[in-house]
Every structure is written in structure tokens, then in C-alpha cells.
């Protein structure tokens, strides 16, 4: 089992920045990729960014150049630095951990609200 705890959400004006953190605990040795997903009201959950244990990253096109995902394996923590935020980035952001055994674990989510 893997437990994930997110932090760092909040209210920010358009053009501002926020950094999300996600700390993993439990069977951390089983984790391969970690990432962030988001779900806006009335929409499906979508991938924002992922990073493998080796550091390979993947981003949704709409956040490329604005968001950066990073991972500290020693601290079992993944970060999402979000710059140049837009109102359309408003959503609940969820941390995800995908294991080598093809299991998915999710955090409870943290709300990011971007005002125009």
C-alpha cells in the first residue's frame, strides 16, 4: 500500500504561481511513476504531468512551458511548480503513484483556484 498526501493548493490571481507537493509513504519501493492529475467542475480527471523514478517527464500540452514536475526520491516527494497560472487551471489536483505492479494510488486532492 502507498499513501499520498498533497499540500500547496490555494487561491491565486491569474499570472501567479503555486507549488504543489505530494509526500509518499508506505511501500515506496514499489513506486515507478508519480504524477499530477486534475479535475475541474463538470469535467473528467485529466493528466497534468508525470515523472518516472529515473526522471523522465511527460506533460499535458496546455501546461508545457508553465508547469514543471520534479521528484526527490530521497524524500519520496513529487512537486509541481505552476507558473503563469490561468483561470482554466482551476481544479482539484490529485497526486498519483503508479507501481511496477501496475497499481494506482491517489491522494485526496488539493484545490487550486485561479482568479481572473
Write up what this structure looks like.
The chain is an all-beta fold and 116 residues long. It has no helices and eleven strands. The protein has strands spanning 2-7, 10-13, 18-26, 31-39, 46-51, 57-59, 67-72, 77-82, 91-99, 104-106, 110-115. Strands 2, 4, 5, 6, 9, 10 and 11 form a seven-stranded mixed sheet that branches. A four-stranded antiparallel sheet has the order 1-3-8-7, with no helix packed on it. It is globular and about 40 Å long. 32% of the residues are buried. The model has no long low-confidence stretch (mean pLDDT 96).
Oligomer state of the chains in this structure? single chain
List the total number of helices. Answer: 0
The largest β sheet comes out as:
7 strands, mixed
Give the overall pLDDT as a whole number.
Answer: 96
Number of strand segments: 11
> What structural class do the secondary elements suggest?
mainly beta
Radius of gyration over C-alpha positions, nearest whole angstrom? 13 Å
Approximately how much helix is present in the residues? under 10%
Distance between the termini: 40 Å
Extract low-pLDDT stretches: none
Order of helix and strand elements from N to C terminus: EEEEEEEEEEE
How much of the residues is beta strand, in percent?
A: over 45%
Shape verdict: globular
